[in-house]
Amino acid sequence: MSSLQLNQKAVIMDENAMSRAVARISYEILERNKGADSLCFVGILSRGVYLAERIAEKLRELEGVAPETGILDITAYRDDEKHSDSGDRTDIPFDIKDKRVIIVDDVIFTGRSARAAMDAVTKRGRPKNIQLAVLVDRGHRELPIRPDYVGKNVPTSRDEAVKVMMKEIDGSDKVVIFE
């Protein structure tokens, strides 16, 4: 969000709704992939990391095995933002070769973050496939990218901002629209 002061318009997901969305995404991932074998998660900094960890934990509860999780810093792969040379904070401590890599992000908007994430993942190896899970899909795509798993579709105007808040960073779980 910009440095301009934005006004909260609506809370579109509370803690319970977020928890249900994570559970639904987890079940959909298991169903589509016929279990958790060869799955791994890479969360896009910063909130995607925590969502990836929550989904992996849910899969551990359901399947008895937690898929590996990693951190993906897409800054250097962005084509729509200037980036500094602050260093790559990616931490994927496992080989992605021949794995089903699920990229996790909090919100998909234009699709540019997802494209950058795919570039960052494929630079580290050739996975069996790449899937995309997002908590919120707000539309307005600029690239032909569609997530495989969506917690909630939220039609927004381009002037609105969607903010995912997570306990690990913000102290509470909720999704808010600002105008």
Write a concise synopsis of the structure shown.
By secondary structure, the chain is of the alpha/beta class. The protein contains four helices and eight strands, in the order βαβαββαβββαβ. Strand 2, helix 2 and strand 3 form a beta-alpha-beta unit.
The SSE order reads: EHEHEEHEEEHE
**Fraction of residues in helix:** 25-40%
Strand content: 25-35%
Give the radius of gyration: 16 Å
The shape is globular
| Overall mean confidence score, pLDDT | 93
> Any idea what the CATH architecture is?
3-Layer(aba) Sandwich
Instruction: Report the sheet with the most strands, covering strand number, pairing sense and barrel closure.
Output: 5 strands, parallel
Strand tally = 8
How does the SSE layout of this entry go?
Blueprint: E1 8-13, H1 15-33, E2 39-44, H2 47-63, E3 68-72, E4 100-108, H3 112-122, E5 129-137, E6 149-153, E7 161-165, H4 167-170, E8 174-178
Parallel strand pairs: 2-3, 2-4, 4-5, 5-6
Antiparallel strand pairs: 1-8, 7-8
Helix pairs in contact: 1-2
Question: Describe it for me?
Answer:
The chain is an alpha/beta fold and 179 residues long. It has a single domain, classed as Rossmann fold (3-Layer(aba) Sandwich). Helix content is 28%, strand content 28%. The chain has helices spanning 15-33, 47-63, 112-122, 167-170; strands at 8-13, 39-44, 68-72, 100-108, 129-137, 149-153, 161-165, 174-178. The strands form two sheets. The chain has a five-stranded parallel beta sheet with strand order 3-2-4-5-6, with helices on both faces. Strands 1-8-7 form a three-stranded antiparallel beta sheet. β2, α2 (47-63) and β3 (68-72) form a beta-alpha-beta unit. The longest helix is centred in the N-terminal third of the chain and has 19 residues, at 15-33. The radius of gyration is 16 Å and the shape is globular. The termini are close together.
